[in-house]
Amino acid sequence: MNKMQRKLIDLDNHGQKVRVGLVGCGKMGSGLVSQLSRIKGMRPSVIVDRHVDKCVTALRKAGVKDVDIVKTTDLKVAENAIKNNSFVVSDDYTLSYKLDMIDGVIDATGNPPFGTQLAVESIEHEKQTILLNVECDAVVGPILNEMAKKKGVVYTGSAGDEPGAIIQLSDFALGLGFKLLAVGKGKNNPLDNYTNEDILREEALSKGLVPKMLTSFVDGTNTMIELTAVANALGFTPDVLGCHGITTNIHDIADEFKLKEQGGILNNYNIVDFAFGVAPGVFAIVTHDTNEVHDLMEYLSMGKGPNYTLYRPYHLTSLETPLTIYDAIVEKEPTIYPKYGQVSDTITVAKRDIKKGQIIEGIGGHDCFGKITSHKHQMENNLLPMPIITEKTTAKVDIPKDTLITYDMVNLDEDHIITRLRKRQDELGL
């Protein structure tokens, strides 16, 4: 029995629980509900989705009886339901943070504009704030983290998502005294920057995914955004625009992720990247400055060095989120956060010709895909961070296919909180 189990069982034995509000009940949210239902001392007391029936279905799949499910938008009714050990389902996301009995709020929407609004309000109400919304963190995470620090609450990404898994592996390496050279993830899907939801619809639905979500995986945007979150947590950047993205295997990757003068592919260390052939795992390339450790690593079949691969062959997405819930609420520790500020960015590239006046579809849409670059490069060239595209973003000019889209090529929704926060973040140099 580990520390987390001991503490949660002790809470449960004393009639207490870690209570969370979950916003977003798609594939990740629904899986989390089932996982939490089997952990003593934790409870998804409030579950919110635009389609409330999804919340009810998730609870039923977790074994909750209908008599224990209360559907409401009324704060008082919700309070009484939780006191009576019932589960609250709603389409009103404000219940997730307005209820005093809720310890933390989890965003599982994957929607950057909405996720920004939710994070701000959750932090303002002094709730520990957990994001399964890396798209939001990658563009306004630094300023959200500053807001959380001022309120004395934790702002964090989730264990189980690849960024969280990479940071956990990095923490392991750094804690043991290794030098971290490069980190990354296996690419779980084929890469086609120009695909769209029409092409992928049938495959997406067969996997229980929203077509836009699968599109963001296949066109590479999701990978770029995840690596941006990792880069901002470690102070790393991509070695080249969009990363190398080599095809390799777990035995050869350490030799390939060396500097060019050492026979590898890299111009620099302290980088993030992805690779085909190592999915669904995450990796860290490390070295050490003592001969004794090098000798022992070779003895342990870790290779001849000087670089070695630490590899975790899986990531369990929201099924691992309880680890972050525990750390954030009980230990007051984040899993992953933008410790170094906006070091890298996911910028916007046109998938096709975009006409002046056209509404630009953002993540998972027909119009653009993302590429990771350094924040310095983004700022110097006025490049548009992709996650701030909202439903009201339009083209000011004709934009040819493959153009790196700049701020002055688009009309943004200047009143939206994600636009305002990113502007403020850049002004503050966060």
Key words describing this protein structure:
single chain; 430 residues; alpha/beta; Rossmann fold; Type Iii Antifreeze Protein Isoform Hplc 12; six-stranded mixed beta sheet; 17 strands
Q: Tally of extended strands?
A: 17
Radius of gyration: 22 Å
Separate helix tally? 16
Into which percent range does the helicity of residues fall? 25-40%
How would you sum up the major sheet? 7 strands, parallel
The percentage of residues in β strands lies in: 15-25%
Question: What low-confidence regions span 5 or more consecutive residues with pLDDT below 50?
Answer: none
Briefly note the CATH topology name of the largest domain: Rossmann fold
CATH architecture classification of the largest domain: 3-Layer(aba) Sandwich
Q: In the residues, how many domains can be counted?
A: 3
Q: Give the rounded overall mean pLDDT.
A: 98
CATH superfamily of the largest domain: NAD(P)-binding Rossmann-like Domain
- Alpha-carbon distance between the two ends: 40 Å
CATH class label of the largest domain: Alpha Beta
Given the C-alpha coordinates, what overall shape results? Answer: globular
- What structural category do the secondary elements indicate? alpha/beta
Domain Oxidoreductase DRL-like catalytic: 160-321
InterPro entries: DRL_cat, NAD(P)-bd_dom_sf
Protein name: Putative dihydrodipicolinate reductase domain protein
How would you describe the overall organization of this protein?
With 430 residues, the protein is α/β, with parallel strands linked by helices. The protein folds into three domains: 3-160 and 318-331, NAD(P)-binding Rossmann-like Domain (Rossmann fold); 162-317, no CATH class; 344-428, Antifreeze-like/N-acetylneuraminic acid synthase C-terminal domain (Type Iii Antifreeze Protein Isoform Hplc 12), CATH 3.90.1210.10. It is 38% helix and 18% strand. The protein contains 16 helices and 17 strands. The chain has helices spanning 3-13, 27-36, 52-61, 75-83, 95-98, 112-124, 134-151, 162-175, 197-206, 211-218, 221-234, 253-256, 291-299, 321-331, 375-380, 417-428, and strands at 18-23, 42-48, 69-71, 87-90, 104-107, 128-131, 155-157, 179-186, 237-238, 246-247, 271-276, 282-287, 308-312, 344-350, 368-374, 394-395, 410-411. It has a seven-stranded parallel beta sheet with strand order 3-4-2-1-5-6-7, sandwiched between helices. Strands 8, 9, 10, 11, 12 and 13 form a six-stranded mixed beta sheet that branches. Helix 7 (134-151) links the parallel strand 6 and strand 7 (155-157). The longest helix has 18 residues, at 134-151. It is globular, with a radius of gyration of 22 Å. 49% of the residues are buried. The model has no long low-confidence stretch (mean pLDDT 98). It comes from Finegoldia magna ATCC 53516. Residues 160-321 form the Oxidoreductase DRL-like catalytic domain. This is Putative dihydrodipicolinate reductase domain protein. InterPro entries: DRL_cat, NAD(P)-bd_dom_sf. Pfam families: DRL_cat.
